[in-house]
Each structure stands twice: as C-alpha cells, then as structure tokens.
C-alpha cells in the first residue's frame, strides 16, 4: 500500500495494525455478530471460541470472497446502497457454504481438537493439578472488554491487573452444601493419600504393588479439585467493593450490575466473562460441532446487517485505507450524551434520539479515546475529542474544589473512595503529593522544584510500564494535582502552618485521603494505568448521574443538606453544574448545614455492606 502522507500519526499506525480487530469489536458491541443464545433450561449462554472466530474473520475480512479486496480496501460494491440486497444474498450463501463445510469436516476437526486438548492439558495438569479449577478471561470477555485501537499486549496487561480482583469476587460466592461435601471428600482422600505415603516411606516395595501409584495420583487430583469448592475462611463478603475494583482495571461493566453485585444473576453473567478453565476446555472441544450450527442457523441471517454495517461505518483515511468509523473515536458522531461530562441540553438529547444506532454501548467510544490519549500522549485528537477531554478535566476540577463540602453527591469523591478502598489507594494517593502536603518549597506560580511526573522516578522499570514514561497526560490525575497545588498556593485549603501539616477534613478520612496515606515509601510505576483507572471510575460515576437524572426528572428537588436520595448511595437528580463551589472560608471548618458529618454519612451509605439488595 502506498503512503500518501508525509507523517503517519499514532492513530494511523494503530489503524493499519488493528483494522480487522476494530471491525470485530464494533460488530460485537453493536450486536451484529450473534454470540448470545437462549438455551432451554440454561438461560442465556455466550459462546465464542477460537474456531468460531476464525471462521467469522475468514468470512468477513481476509478469506476468499470476503468484502475486503485486500488488507486495506473494502470493495466498492459494499459502499453502494443499490447493491445492498444483492450483496446480502451473496454473503448469506457464502456463510451457508462455509457452515456446511464445517459440518462435513467436523469429525476430523473434533479429533484434532481432542488430541490437542489432551496433550496440552495433560502437561498443565501434571505441573499444576488444580489448574482446571482456576479461572481465565473468556474469548468473549476479551472482545467485550477491549478498547478500540488497543494492542494485544496492552489488553493483556490490563486484564492481568484485574485478574486478582475478579478471582476474589467469584470466590466469595460459594455453596454451603458443596463446601461441606468437598471438605469431607478432601478429608477422606487426604487420609488415604497420607496412609499410602507413610507406607511407602516405611517400605518402598509398597509402590510396586499394582495400581498404588495410580490410586495416589487420582487421590491427589481429587484433593486438588475439592479445594476449589472450599471457600477461604478469611474472606469478607463485600461484592460491591470487589466489583468496583474489577471495573477500575477492566474499564467495562454493564450498568445493571451496579448495586447488584451480590446477586446470583450478576455472578452468572460475570462468569461468562471470567470462566473456569475446564469450561473453556469443554467449549473448545464442542466448538467443531457448535460452530457450523451457529454459522448456518444464526450468522447467515445477519448478512443484511453486516452489509449495512460496512456501508454505514466505513471511512477512508488517506495513507491508511478503509477503517471502521468507530475506531476513529469520533465523540461527535459516535459518542453517547449519557457519557458526556457536561449536562446535556434538550437539543442534544433530541439529536441523540434521532441517531440511536450511531453510538456505542457501555461508553466504548469515550473510554477508548481516554485510553488511547493516555497511552499515546503525543497524539493530537480532533477538535471534538479535545473538547470532550477538556470538559472532563474541567468537571473533575470543579468536583475537586467541592470535595471538602460535598453538599451534593460528588462523582470525584465516589471515584477516589472506590479506587482507594479497592486496593489501589497506595498508588493513587501518592500521586496527590502536593507541596503543601509534603511541606516542600513551592516556587512562585505554584511550580514545584522537582515535578512528580519526572521520568527519573520510573527508571529501572520502563519495560513494565504501559503508556508514556512521562506520566499521564489525558486523564484527570494531573488536573486534580494541579488544582490542589494551585489551591495550596492561593491559600484556599485550610492548614495551621506549613510545619504542622494540613488540616484533615473528617469527610475525606474514609477514602484514605489523609496525609498518612499520602506519604507512601514507593512511587507507582504504571502511572498511566492508575490514571486510567481513576478516569474510568469517574466517567462511570458521571454516567450514573446522567441516568439517575433522567430517571428522576419529575422528582421534587431535594434540600442541599442531610442524607438525600434513594437508599444504597444512589446519586441525586439535582444537577451539579448549576451550583457554584463554596468559598474557601467554609471548606476548612464548615458552617451551619455544611457540616462534614453530612458528607461522612453519605460515604457510609455507599458502603457495599450497607447497600440494600
């Protein structure tokens, strides 16, 4: 392909690498590719395997007769409306032929899949007997949780960071009956194994008895399997906090999971993203049988939608070729008003109602833009995208100024509280080491003598850092820190003296914002990941505020003081941006109805254990 541009931007390079991946992510996000099925007696089931994805990509991207002429150009026929019906019928037939071919060849593919799984998992089980009882991100989860324009190693690093929290969340759900049975079976197997081991130590001829080694191996495998069903006695049932921690790392979770993390429905749906390895193995084994059925009876009837998707969401970029328009991360075209930082006007809401099929679900466009901006700080986004990022920073700065009073629900406070309680507090709070907190000298104009974002703090660990080594530039962490430094210089933050330290607001105590948490001994290496986690939580909080504002539009306004709103820490429908932050005189001590105890009560209401089911 000839390059018609003197300079290729970071986005152009990502487009050329991830052209087909972005199309696939967008089609799954829009529901064009059917991956969810209603199974009798099992409910909704998600199915995506390597074999199914290979067939879909071969049909839609690079195989013979695919819509793409080559790796960068979509056939001109797919861009013409008058060819719509003809192309749909042709694609329908092609999918049918591939499905029939898979059905004819499935005995050979099934045999190969069985042999491959046997040799692969035999070595894994020998090395780690309990590995099949562990979990992994499913193929559907990797697609659902992936950003536009995100490379493989970036996605792997992000999902690996969320693995521990996801495992803890799934482990807190246990069946008491299965736990009792597993304990008894483990006791019997362990006792028999111990007897055989003791006899073999006393007389090694015991091992030469027929089937003794086989029995010991089986007992060890059963013992390892029983441990999966035995819960940890020290686990604390706090599903909301753990699910928020998962959200901070993986960035995407459905809206209806909020405040319902303790329910079996949410756990079941989350298991579709984070499944047992044995379930993954069984899906791969049945894939040769199920894949042709999906192609013949489900995918081929989506041919019309696929043709329309190519025509409506394909743009040509000079020097790059045809790419998916969603991958352009155009906020104006594909952004959702419910994920915007500012309150929408009625005209914007009406305009969005006229284009419901142009937006992505789950904030995919907005979060992908933030992630790409942070990992590529030298990239210059378009004007609309820049306006979105600036509006997000402005909103965060306003919430930061009102953080000490919290006369109404504060999205930044909720994000910081979720991030710190989720286990990232040490890394996050250390980023707020403003000069007034450390007692460091400040130069005129509020510039610290040695910047926290200096790349010297990252030397020795650059290979493990995601994004720029110069620190976050597209999120809200740097904005919040600058706001704190500016407030300290102007004297708007209450403090007795530089030597005695700042006056700690009791409202901020639950969110680990006290100086004792700020003075961590180490500096977080992956600044971009922490910045993205905070930005993700903050954007989700703003999204929830938009949803609650739309839900409670007709509700009477609530007074500004006292615990307000629905139970469980839900957001109030009172618009935030119409209110001016209080003056500095009331931020330190408070007056009248602005007592910090009101805000502290709201922090308690948002505790997951106190939330109503």
TrEMBL record:
<feature type="region of interest" description="Disordered">
    <location>
        <begin position="337"/>
        <end position="361"/>
    </location>
</feature>
<feature type="transmembrane region" description="Helical">
    <location>
        <begin position="177"/>
        <end position="199"/>
    </location>
</feature>
<dbReference type="Pfam" id="PF04109">
    <property type="entry name" value="ATG9"/>
</dbReference>
<dbReference type="GO" id="GO:0006869">
    <property type="term" value="P:lipid transport"/>
</dbReference>
<dbReference type="GO" id="GO:0005776">
    <property type="term" value="C:autophagosome"/>
</dbReference>
<keyword id="KW-1133">Transmembrane helix</keyword>
<dbReference type="GO" id="GO:0061709">
    <property type="term" value="P:reticulophagy"/>
</dbReference>
<feature type="region of interest" description="Disordered">
    <location>
        <begin position="545"/>
        <end position="613"/>
    </location>
</feature>
<keyword id="KW-0813">Transport</keyword>
<dbReference type="GO" id="GO:0000422">
    <property type="term" value="P:autophagy of mitochondrion"/>
</dbReference>
<keyword id="KW-0072">Autophagy</keyword>
<feature type="compositionally biased region" description="Pro residues">
    <location>
        <begin position="556"/>
        <end position="566"/>
    </location>
</feature>
<dbReference type="GO" id="GO:0034045">
    <property type="term" value="C:phagophore assembly site membrane"/>
</dbReference>
<feature type="transmembrane region" description="Helical">
    <location>
        <begin position="211"/>
        <end position="230"/>
    </location>
</feature>
<dbReference type="InterPro" id="IPR007241">
    <property type="entry name" value="Autophagy-rel_prot_9"/>
</dbReference>
<keyword id="KW-0812">Transmembrane</keyword>
<dbReference type="GO" id="GO:0034497">
    <property type="term" value="P:protein localization to phagophore assembly site"/>
</dbReference>
<dbReference type="GO" id="GO:0034727">
    <property type="term" value="P:piecemeal microautophagy of the nucleus"/>
</dbReference>
<comment type="function">
    <text>Phospholipid scramblase involved in autophagy. Cycles between the preautophagosomal structure/phagophore assembly site (PAS) and the cytoplasmic vesicle pool and supplies membrane for the growing autophagosome. Lipid scramblase activity plays a key role in preautophagosomal structure/phagophore assembly by distributing the phospholipids that arrive through ATG2 from the cytoplasmic to the luminal leaflet of the bilayer, thereby driving autophagosomal membrane expansion.</text>
</comment>
<comment type="similarity">
    <text>Belongs to the ATG9 family.</text>
</comment>
<protein>
    <recommendedName>
        <fullName>Autophagy-related protein 9</fullName>
    </recommendedName>
</protein>
<keyword id="KW-0472">Membrane</keyword>
<feature type="compositionally biased region" description="Low complexity">
    <location>
        <begin position="569"/>
        <end position="588"/>
    </location>
</feature>
<feature type="transmembrane region" description="Helical">
    <location>
        <begin position="95"/>
        <end position="122"/>
    </location>
</feature>
<keyword id="KW-0445">Lipid transport</keyword>
